[in-house]
Specification:
The complex is a heterodimer of chains A (269) and B (292). Chain A folds into two domains: 1-155 and 242-269, no CATH class; 167-229. Helices cover 68% and strands 3% of the residues of chain A. Chain A contains ten helices and two strands; from the N terminus they run H-H-H-H-H-E-E-H-H-H-H-H. Chain A has helices at 17-20, 23-40, 43-59, 64-71, 75-86, 104-130, 133-144, 154-183, 194-225, 244-267, and strands at residues 93-97, 100-103. In chain A, a hairpin with a 2-residue loop joins strand 1 (93-97) and strand 2. In chain B, 38% of the residues lie in helices and 21% in strands. Chain B has eleven helices and ten strands. In chain B, the strands form two sheets. A six-stranded mixed β-sheet of chain B has the order 6-7-8-3-9-10, with helices on both faces. Chain B has a four-stranded antiparallel β-sheet with strand order 2-1-4-5, covered by helices on one side. In chain B, a hairpin with a 7-residue loop joins strand 1 and strand 2 (20-30). In chain B, helix 2 (101-111) crosses helix 3 (116-129), helix 2 (101-111) runs parallel beside helix 5 (147-159) and helix 3 crosses helix 5 (147-159). The longest helix of chain B has 16 residues, at 177-192. The N and C termini of chain B lie far apart (59 Å). Classes of the chains: A mainly alpha (269), B alpha/beta (292). The interface between A and B is medium-sized, with 28 and 31 residues.
């Protein structure tokens, strides 16, 4: 797969309950969901929370192939997490890979941590897939507004987050183009030892850094030329109001997280 | 090298709501030593076509053949290596990365396993063929050069690999007219040495100067493929595909309309001068007058 075909931080249009829910509520739900993942403490709890997330994704009509593309960038990290734990724990021997024994506790712990990491990533992806970037900025800005009294530049921070999200696909496209251009000159990123591979990254990283600074500079100038003056005195055309859809979403999210944590901590599995 | 596309199609992000068809059923054969221009409106699929020709992407439907051998999916060895096909994307100068010009140009041959001294010799020859003096430019930082010079350095980096085919995506975009003219001149010289050159772009004046054969792509489909002189003078064809005929062709049309006389469809400086002399009859060349 080419880098420019990866999907990270892109909005998937739709009109589901998840799409219509208040973005502030969705951000809060993600934070609570992530906290729930760490509190659940057992497989049963994680499975319930995974089921809740999958139901939400199905309801939002996100195609599995689309989801697979979103998760693919972290697949190696998930596998590494699993394998690392597999050989670190003891317990009864389940089987062997050549001379290396596989212990039950290692498989269990590896599976648990990998699933938790996967759900953690998925929760973030669900938020960005069902919330347009502008709504995310609005919500972050509103949620951090009380901090403005402490002279925290809340709106600017929210905008920075959105710009970072917005630029991920752009940078991936640029990285893809540079990798292909250097490959056309015989550069290989996938062969040799670690030192050789690290050196081979320079022809990609140096142009990518230069382009990123150029992009940032041009964006700043474009914003200034359109009279951008920060969050001071800024009003919003869209007003966020909580409604029945939000109440339903909050209730369902609370049931999933509370159920997952309660069952995870009591079932012993 | 002979490159052939048979009914090739390609779609980005296939199977997702953002899927977009870039190419559909394109058949094209590029013979060794040709000088081809690929043109079409913005977003017509020109850049994707270049990537398929370079073997950097595999067509989703149809197939691509290099020297008569099909490029198999998932088998990189069936695609010719960087030593044989060189490709430069838009603004290739943004991929410069070494501290000096000579090191950047020599990095390609070094990647191919060529030793330092012969790699340097190749780099010097490539710089010369792009009209840059290796002695005065070699030790300079690529970032101290003008955009036109940087672009030539980037293209020299491809030439140093001594490829059989050069695929260039809008090589003269964002260059000033003098730099454009000079770059086209260098490319014609390189093609004269037997290197196949394919240029993608929508500058019809550049196509008129450079291409012997023209390929028009519109909405991912092959709209026309034939001698550049014939296609570029077909103003109806150009308009149908959202393209503007080269300035020389438009001037020729205007002169024919204004004078009611036949005008060569492709005006050069010499043929334009001869036509204008024919209008006013023989006369002595006048001394140019300067304002005092």
């Amino acid at each position: 797969m080419h880098l420019d075909e990866l999907i990270i931080g892109q909005y998937f249009p739709g009109n589901s309950l998840l799409h219509r829910a208040d973005p502030r509520l969705k951000i809060t739900a993600v934070f609570i969901y992530v906290a729930g993942l760490f509190l659940a403490g057992g497989f049963a709890g994680l499975l319930i929370m995974a089921a809740g997330l999958l139901l939400a994704l199905a309801q939002a009509r996100v195609p599995p192939r689309w989801l697979y593309r979103s998760v693919r960038p972290v697949a190696a990290l998930l596998l590494l997490t699993f394998l690392f734990q597999l050989f670190l724990h003891g317990g009864p021997v389940l089987g062997r890979i050549g001379p290396v024994p596989i212990y039950r506790d290692g498989a269990r712990e590896g599976g648990y941590l990998a699933l938790r990491l996967l759900l953690l990533v998925l929760a973030g992806i669900v938020l960005s897939l069902t919330t347009p970037p502008v709504a995310l900025t609005d919500a972050f800005g509103k949620m951090m507004a009380p901090l403005a009294k402490l002279k925290v530049p809340a709106y600017e921070l929210a905008l920075m987050m959105t710009i970072a999200l917005r630029f991920i696909p752009t940078l991936l496209m640029e990285a893809d183009r540079i990798i292909k251009a250097q490959a056309a000159r015989g550069a290989s990123l996938a062969s040799g030892g670690p030192a050789r591979r690290a050196r081979a990254l320079l022809p990609v990283l140096i142009p990518l850094f230069i382009l990123s600074f150029k992009d940032a500079d041009e964006l700043a100038m474009a914003m200034e030329s359109r009279c951008w003056r920060g969050g001071k005195g800024r009003t919003s055309r869209r007003r966020l109001r909580l409604g029945p859809v939000d109440a339903m979403f909050a209730l369902l999210a609370a049931v999933v997280v509370a159920g997952g944590v309660a069952i995870g901590r009591t079932s012993g599995f | 090298m002979r490159i052939e596309l048979r009914e090739a199609g390609f779609a980005y992000l296939q199977g997702t709501p953002f899927a977009s068809i870039a190419l559909a059923g394109v058949s094209l054969c590029i013979e060794p030593g040709e000088r081809i221009g690929i043109t079409g409106p913005v977003g017509s699929g020109k850049s994707t076509l270049l990537e398929l020709l370079a073997g950097l992407r595999q067509p989703g439907t149809g197939s691509v053949y290099f020297d008569g051998l099909p490029a198999a999916r998932r088998r990189k060895k069936t695609v010719p290596g960087p030593g044989r096909i060189g490709i430069a994307f838009q603004s290739p100068e943004s991929c410069l990365f070494e501290k000096t010009v000579i090191a950047d140009v020599a990095s390609g041959p070094r990647n191919l396993g060529i030793n330092e001294a012969p790699a340097r010799e190749r780099a010097e020859a490539a710089l010369k063929s792009m009209g840059l003096d290796p002695v005065s430019y070699g030790r300079r930082s690529p970032w101290s050069l003008s955009t036109g010079e940087q672009r030539r350095v980037a293209l020299a980096g491809l030439l140093a690999l001594e490829p059989e085919v050069l695929l260039l995506d809008e090589p003269s975009a964002s260059l000033d007219p003098a730099a454009r003219e000079s770059l086209t001149g260098q490319l014609l010289k390189i093609n004269g040495k037997g290197v196949t050159i394919v240029i993608a772009g929508h500058d019809m004046d550049e196509m008129a100067r450079f291409a012997r054969r023209l390929v028009i792509i519109d909405e991912g489909r092959l709209a026309a493929d034939g001698p550049a002189a014939a296609l570029l003078t077909d103003t109806g064809l150009m308009e149908r595909h959202g393209l503007e005929a080269p300035a020389t062709v438009r001037l020729s049309g205007m002169l024919a309309q204004a004078t009611g006389r036949p005008v060569p469809p492709f005006l050069t400086e010499a043929s334009a001068a001869s036509f204008l002399r024919g209008l006013s009859g023989p006369s002595e060349p006048r001394e140019p007058r300067h304002a005092s």
